[in-house]
Amino acid sequence: MHEAGLMQCALEAAEEQARLCGATRIHRVTLRVGKLAGVESEALAFAFDVVTADTIAEGAILDIEPVPIVCYCDVCEKEFSPEGFVFTCQDCGRPSADVRAGRELELASLEVSGDGG
Amino acid sequence: MAVEQRAGPRVIRVTKSLLAKNAEAAAHNRETFRRLGLCAINMLSSPGSGKTALLQATLPRLTLKAAVVVGDLATDNDARRLQGTQAPVVQITTGNLCHLEADMVNRACAEIDFDGVRLLFIENVGNLVCPASYDLGEELRVVLMSVTEGEDKPLKYPKIFKTADVVVLSKMDLAGPAGFERSAALDNLRHMAPQATVFELSARTGAGMTDWCAFLQERSNR
Q1: How far, in Å, CA of B137 to CA of B140, rounded?
Q2: ipTM of predicted complex
Q3: Is there a contact between B18 and A38 if contact means CB atoms under 8 Å apart?
């Protein structure tokens, strides 16, 4: 789903952060991608190499931290991690629509260097 | 010393959504709709599930004023089909983009006179994948699936069904000829979209339209 466009957004956010802290090179980009984010990690990685060419992030390592889905059962009053995409509580069997984690699609952190000042 | 430390490798925590730009535009839309007293409804489905036909059947049955923004890759056919309904209609032609984004909806809304309008329907591009990820600033997300698409549709497209406030089972008049297994479909919806209110209807025969329209009227009055 538009991994190239999303990677372009990631790069722009990374470049802006690097600028703000006076860095001149980006060595590592870490993304957090939830299982329900609707994007394919392999496609993100491919797009990363393409969009970072000739930028301060060229050659940087891309880390993708997968975020598993966590739901909340309001009958049992506790969180659970469903297998697959049917979110039924393992204890009481009730389907849950309360998703507490797993939708993330974010630029988590950068490893940078260089003094732009 | 300070310069050396600054120049060395260091980790910066960012935590920024890759969809931040669209999220900001969606928040702006949401605020605009709230200010105008509009209930905005994002209508999503596969191509051909009957979004436009549902709007054609819905608009004349409503006693309140509605407006429509419709998105397609090409043509203004859908907007033309809705011309006779007396609702202001704006067509967005996306070119190659397979989903609507919040800024596109914002631009389309600039062409509408919302005086007296209570409901804004946003007919998304027919696609069950990408539109799921793009908040348009809507109050209600309606996902249609027709009886010819298979009872397991909700299982195949988890994300969109899990973000639906309403699911409309459309073309119910074709359920018999299509061999549609209604209880299997409802069971799948209960598992994949327990949060959604389900309507079963036929825009063509009018079956189920009363409940659907009553729901819309009630939501617009909130």
Answers
A1: 9
A2: 0.92
A3: no
